Amino acid sequence: MANIPQRIIHEYLRHDKKFPHVWCAGCSNGIVLGAIIRAIASMNLDRDDIVMVSGIGCSSRMPVYVDFNTLHTLHGRSIAYATGVKLHKPHLKVIVVTGDGDCTAIGGNHLIHAARRNIDLKVILINNNIYGMTGGQCSPTTPHDAIATTAPYGNIEPDFNVCNLAMGAGASFVARTTAFHVQEMQGIIKDAMEHPGFSLIEVISACPVIYGRLNKKGGAPQMMKEFRDNSIPLAAVDKLPPEKVEGKIVRGILRREIRPEFCAQYASLVQRVQAMGGE
Amino acid sequence: MLKNEKAKTPVKPKQETVTKKPDTALQELQQKRERKNVLMQGNEAVALGALDAGVNFFAGYPITPSTEIAEILATELPKRGGVFVQMEDEIASICAITGASLAGAKSLTATSGPGFSLMQEGIGFAKITETPCVVVNVQRMGPSTGMPTSPAQGDIMQAKWGSHGDSPAIVLYPDSVKESYELTIRAVNLSEKYRTCVILLLDEVLGHMREAVRLPDMANVRVISRIKPTVPPHWYKHYDENQKYLSPLASYGEGYRFHVTGLTHDSHGFPTNKSSEAGEMMERLRKKISYNIRDLVQIESHQMEDAKIAIFAAGITARAAKAAIAMARFEGIKVGLLRPLTIWPFPDDAVRKMLRNVETVIVPELNQGQLIHEVQRLTKDKSESNLIALQRVNGQLITPNDILRKIKEVF
Predict the structure, then answer these.
(1) What kind of architecture, by CATH, is found in domain A8-275?
(2) In chain A, where does DSSP find H-type helix?
(3) pLDDT tens per residue, range B365-375
(4) Of A12, A205, B50, B227, which is the most exposed, with the fewest CB atoms less than 10 Å away?
């Protein structure tokens, strides 16, 4: 018998039920899943208290593999379902795993309103710049000029800056990292889990099989190298001349501020109303 | 169960003077109201019915003519520690009540035509995942924006077929303010019992009409809540096929850590592509309704004993029919009314019996022909001339005189 040490992730996976998974070789989704699990394990959270909610897409298949309370919903609607779960049982830690199409196209309205309310959801947006599950269509984060099956001559639309969108809508915790920076990602997820308010983490990720092929990015290792070479930590931005920042992925916690959280606001409203004597 | 049978249950003894001091503000509210007739709107009755049924989560979006339901619950739910949240749209509303229900809430939303259209995908999700919730649709006229403050009964088919794919439906349809209260409670009860999204259709005029209502003593309100699992988590099946299609339901945060997906799933809730499991799941959704027709179908049979002409109508149109029947009987014409309180599943047996016993059936409805097709489906051995349509879609009601004229035409 091979002597394979038990790893933390194995304790959290529904290994006897749902494997092998659906993701392609080289996909970043598994890396993000590993980081989420290690972050949760490091915090000693009770898995009965964790709810993972997702919509539709490659990344949204994640909940089925993990041994939490899991909810795989409609395309774009994960944040709306998560809002219902969280409001009814505010003590639960609600994590939303979503993709660029799910969260910023069909689900854009729910994203901005959840950010505005500052409801304590942890939204992990895995941005692979394309619709992978349906075979490579253009998404709101597909870069200008990039190729997609529905932009065969190059994408003429500008792409969303997801973090700026969330900050503009009022998210109180916003961070960006890449699938290459696994340790950083794990730390950011932990910070987000501890933050009392709406948190959005954008993880720039690799879809070598579809996006990579269409845009001649090489394989998964080449895409990972690109994330390494083409990104800079937020702390370095101020020290560099603007031309060196231009076009780079800026990584790190872009916003962390404390403002009233929605479920807490609702609880104090209930207290105030009940103190008035029911009339 | 026939409505008439229900009425035979012993009438509650006259209310004694309450001497017990109420422990909570809520009980005080309830005790205060039961001793008097209150003038209230249909929408108000729905809101109070929801509260009495134990609804503790409402998510909604303002839309005429249902908005009062949200407004009342925004005032009342916080008093009871329940949640009211105004969402960004109707799509988010149906999603939020479904999520809350999975976390253990009794949840409800209220809307009207355009919002009901937006909710359809979410209604399908609640049905395939067998998650209890209630959608109240106060119907207004026309497709699209139509006439927001005018009545129509145009969503009868949408209430059953609005979501894509086969999805068996439970849809209730009251005809008075009092019944709006009762059927709201019933809708919540059925959603909890059958683990599905139950739809309550109201007519615009019913939502906004005021009638004197004496709400029952809370002790006489029957409230059903979902069955909770009694097995340890590793035995739990989210869809237990051995429980006569009415299986226990765990909530998030209770240690069961189950999976819910809108994909076709097996009895544990995990996605499957096996045709055997997919077929089983679809059959389960169908049988849950079709094996429980007796429990689900409620009809009112009004002066049908000696009737030669029957009127088949629902909601506010049935109210007009009752007035027309009184006038017709005064002139010696034997007319009766069959009224479905449950329109889906359709009361096939009662309609077949009606078709056997009368010469002519008039189907008045505020649409271009919806209920009449269901009646027609059951008229195998009758010539079509015996089935008379009376339809109106212009924002006006069908009046008792309209129906009386039709009765005299066919008499």
Answers:
(1) 3-Layer(aba) Sandwich (3.40)
(2) 8-12, 29-42, 78-88, 100-101, 108-117, 162-169, 182-194, 213-214, 220-229, 234-237, 242-245, 262-275
(3) 999 999 999 99
(4) B227
